[in-house]
Structure to design on (846 residues):
């Protein structure tokens, strides 16, 4: 499992200064948080795509976990969209609200009326695109940025040591949690554990044999990692690096590009109402 | 004095039993101190006092005074103390914070705010000491266990502490990893003036380096002296539950038979010398009758042309053929990465062969075509870490969980529960939360919960990792009883002493292949093959081999070798 794990390679993204990659993540984060319309989100995804490819990600080992993320996202957003048929939800395309492909009246279902609408499907597509772009961007960032460089950068930004520690440990925890999850699922399947679909409360309960060991072990790891990190003088002094970290021309161009992209999309949002559904 | 403790007592938060009681001792600069004692004796608590983890990180009630180079640990933070005391923990996995070897080693010096050139010099020196030069760009999580623990040591050494404290640094490693860490410790002891403190369950590994041994029991230092003084008092060691190292035990057994009066040899080399020159100078061989190997009768697990290639291209199994007989107690041994766990995962259907011809048959079922729910009625697998499995609020619920999933009725569930509780000696803990119990008991519960499902074959992955010798024996005896009652047990281990004592057959794996299989006596006499797998026979076989005897009978315990020596005298 190589998702969300820094890997030492020589790619353009690996060579970029972490600050310029942080500009990318922040700029995209702002746009992605206000855009819901799948069409501009698709454009945004296509703008990002070359950079995802430039990172030379290990697509083979990523495809499976990433596929699950996309699938879960699609299902989750689709279910949410079933209740988004109310007028007023889609301000940019109000006409779409009425286009109902399938519906169920409120009196027939305890959660109220539901409908599959074109607006709902657009919502599902938009949210899925947002998630894919966001997940890929964060994954590429983590894949290509050395944890020590990030600690250095955040320390330079005068963030509190505890906050920097959380970021650092997050790097460490992603691969651990994925690995632990797969072991615990295997261990419980060998005890006859199976996931059956149905009542959401029962489904949540069914996850306890997996979530409890994973959480307990994650807490244990965090406890021991905290001890190990403290034992290595974390938080005593100014964090220094053993290698040079300088903004190059490529870094400035990269940062400027994303600031321009953010400016353009903000302009479309404010000036032309592009973005909301 | 570098380390000074005065009347130190410590009780963990929410515990009513003190972990340390009135400990007073001094350690001088440059000393190599080995700390030993049974599980729960207070050894790790003692180490955690030295760099201030107690009381700054770990809550509890601390009285008395701990001084490091004259400075009270209460007055300094853990991070400040880290300049003086470098700490290496048991589990290498929890100590890695960065994602390249070089960055991880540089993490400590970076935190100290050193200049880049100073950091680079420290990193290089630490990598040199730990034999990790050339590994700088590697991801730490792709390293072997021994290399990872070396990295944890390098991360600490790069901060150039005067005191190095290591908490069971070899307990989670395979033999190759252990040898690597011991060799690094030897270099450090010889080439630096560091004060080194090592907590070690197998003190024979480092005893030849020790200036002093501290024996802990129930939170007290009950013996503090040279290795000869501490290990010379065998009565005390046995009384507190410390199992003697195997070579020492051979001579202890000889002493019990009135055949040895001198001091007990502490190391393998000393024992070998004693045997060569004092016991058996002329090499005459005792009359040895080797029992014939029983013929194979009833195959319960058959693995044919099994291959497995992981997603990253690693060929973990290379067309292996192996079989296991019904009611056998078999050990699978090999270094980490040799394919042991991958093979075991195929037996229970967690993994499937990646080649078409590969076949695994268990109890008459083709694993590839059998649903897991059906398969687990025939074969099951206990993971190395019991905490990957335990989640219930009581031992009773934990054991019943699998039975409920299999749809076993209440009456039968109750019967099986009573049966496994009795077999595993868990009656007193039946309502206790499993997570609150010590690791030895948690391992037992994990095994018991699967035994209750009554599989014909049980595969157990490194059941004794992290346990002391007595706890390990307890677990192995339970498994032996299972075999006696008809279950086929396959266990994966690095502990060759346990293989000799319990296994009736051994499968040696290396680089995805089965190198050799057979009864322990046969396998342990094939030294070139063991060497190829980077393994060595247990100490009792090594000692017996030194005597030049051929056709050894099965040696299960040091007492067996002592019997043999007694017959030869």
């Amino acid at each position: 499992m190589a998702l969300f794990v820094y890997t030492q390679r020589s790619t353009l993204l690996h060579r970029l200064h972490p600050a310029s990659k942080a500009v990318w993540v922040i700029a995209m984060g702002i746009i992605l948080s206000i855009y819901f319309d799948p069409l501009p989100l698709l454009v945004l995804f296509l703008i990002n795509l070359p950079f995802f490819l430039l990172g030379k990600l290990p697509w083979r080992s990523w495809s499976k976990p990433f596929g699950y993320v996309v699938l879960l996202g699609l299902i989750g957003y689709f279910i949410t969209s079933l209740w988004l048929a109310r007028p007023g939800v889609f301000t940019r395309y109000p006409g779409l609200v009425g286009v109902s492909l399938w519906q169920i009246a409120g009196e027939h279902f305890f959660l109220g009326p539901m409908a599959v609408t074109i607006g709902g499907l657009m919502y599902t597509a938009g949210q899925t695109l947002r998630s894919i772009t966001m997940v890929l961007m964060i994954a590429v960032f983590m894949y290509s940025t050395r944890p020590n460089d990030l600690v250095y950068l955040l320390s330079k930004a005068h963030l509190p040591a505890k906050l920097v520690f959380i970021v650092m440990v997050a790097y460490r925890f992603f691969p651990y949690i994925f690995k632990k999850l797969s072991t615990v699922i295997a261990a419980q399947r060998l005890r006859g554990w199976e996931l059956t679909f149905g009542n959401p409360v029962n489904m949540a309960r069914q996850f306890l044999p997996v979530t409890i060991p994973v959480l307990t072990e994650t807490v244990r790891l965090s406890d021991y990692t905290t001890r190990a990190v403290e034992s290595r003088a974390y938080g005593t002094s100014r964090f220094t690096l053993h290698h040079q970290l300088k903004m190059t021309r490529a870094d400035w161009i990269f940062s400027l590009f994303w600031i321009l992209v953010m400016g353009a999309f903000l302009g479309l949002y404010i000036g032309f109402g592009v973005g909301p559904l | 004095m570098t380390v000074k403790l005065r009347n130190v007592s410590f009780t963990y938060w929410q515990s009513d039993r003190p972990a340390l009681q009135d400990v007073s001792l001094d350690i001088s600069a440059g000393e190599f101190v080995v700390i030993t004692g049974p599980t729960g004796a207070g050894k790790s608590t003692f180490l955690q006092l030295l760099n201030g983890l107690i009381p700054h990180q770990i809550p509890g009630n601390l009285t008395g005074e701990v001084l490091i180079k004259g400075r009270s640990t209460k007055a300094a933070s853990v991070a400040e103390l880290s300049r003086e005391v470098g700490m290496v923990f048991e589990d290498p996995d929890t100590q890695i914070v960065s994602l390249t070897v070089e960055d991880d080693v540089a993490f400590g010096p970076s935190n100290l705010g050193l200049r880049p050139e100073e950091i680079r010099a420290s990193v290089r020196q630490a990598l040199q000491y730990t034999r990790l030069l050339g590994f700088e760009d590697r991801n730490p999580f792709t390293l072997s266990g021994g290399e990872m623990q070396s990295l944890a040591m390098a991360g600490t050494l790069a901060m150039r502490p005067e005191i190095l404290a290591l908490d069971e640094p070899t307990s989670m490693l395979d033999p190759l990893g252990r040898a690597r860490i011991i060799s690094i410790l030897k270099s450090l002891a010889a080439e630096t003036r560091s004060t080194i403190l090592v907590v070690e369950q197998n003190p024979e590994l480092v005893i030849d380096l020790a200036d002093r041994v501290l024996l802990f029991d129930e939170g007290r230092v009950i013996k503090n002296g040279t290795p000869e003084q501490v290990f010379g008092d065998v009565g005390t060691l046995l009384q507190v539950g410390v199992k003697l190292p195997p070579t020492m035990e051979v001579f202890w057994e000889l002493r019990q038979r009135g055949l040895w009066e001198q001091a007990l040899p502490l190391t393998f080399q000393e024992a070998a010398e004693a045997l060569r020159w004092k016991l058996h100078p002329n090499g005459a061989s005792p009359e040895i009758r080797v029992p014939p190997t029983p013929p194979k009768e009833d195959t319960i697990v058959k693995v044919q042309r099994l291959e497995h290639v992981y997603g990253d291209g690693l060929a973990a199994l290379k067309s292996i053929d192996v079989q296991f007989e019904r009611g056998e107690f078999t050990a699978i041994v090999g270094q980490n990465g040799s394919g042991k766990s991958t093979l075991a995962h195929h037996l229970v259907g967690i993994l499937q062969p990646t080649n078409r011809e590969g076949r695994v048959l268990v109890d008459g079922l083709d694993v590839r075509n059998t649903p897991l729910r059906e398969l687990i009625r025939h074969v099951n697998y206990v993971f190395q870490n019991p905490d990957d499995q335990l989640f219930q609020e009581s031992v009773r619920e934990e054991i019943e969980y699998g039975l409920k999933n299999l749809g076993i009725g209440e009456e039968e569930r109750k019967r099986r529960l009573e049966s496994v509780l009795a077999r595993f000696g868990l009656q007193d803990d039946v309502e206790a939360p499993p997570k609150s119990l010590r690791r030895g008991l948690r391992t037992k519960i994990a095994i018991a919960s699967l035994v209750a499902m009554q599989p014909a074959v049980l595969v157990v992955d490194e059941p004794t990792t992290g346990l002391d010798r007595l706890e390990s024996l307890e677990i192995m005896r339970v498994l032996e009883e299972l075999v006696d009652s008809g279950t086929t047990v396959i266990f994966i281990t690095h502990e060759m002493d346990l293989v000799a004592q319990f296994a009736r057959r051994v499968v040696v794996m290396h680089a995805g292949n089965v190198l050799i299989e057979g009864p322990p006596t046969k396998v342990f006499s094939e030294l070139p093959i063991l060497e190829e797998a980077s393994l060595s026979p247990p100490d009792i076989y090594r000692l017996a081999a030194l005597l030049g005897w051929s056709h050894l009978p099965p040696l299960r315990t040091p007492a067996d070798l002592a019997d043999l020596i007694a017959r030869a005298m």
Observations:
- Chain B touches chain A through 73 residues (CB under 8 Å).
- The two ends of chain B are 49 Å apart (CA to CA).
- Chain B has 22 helices and 20 strands.
- The CA atoms of residues 59 and 372 of chain B lie 45 Å apart.
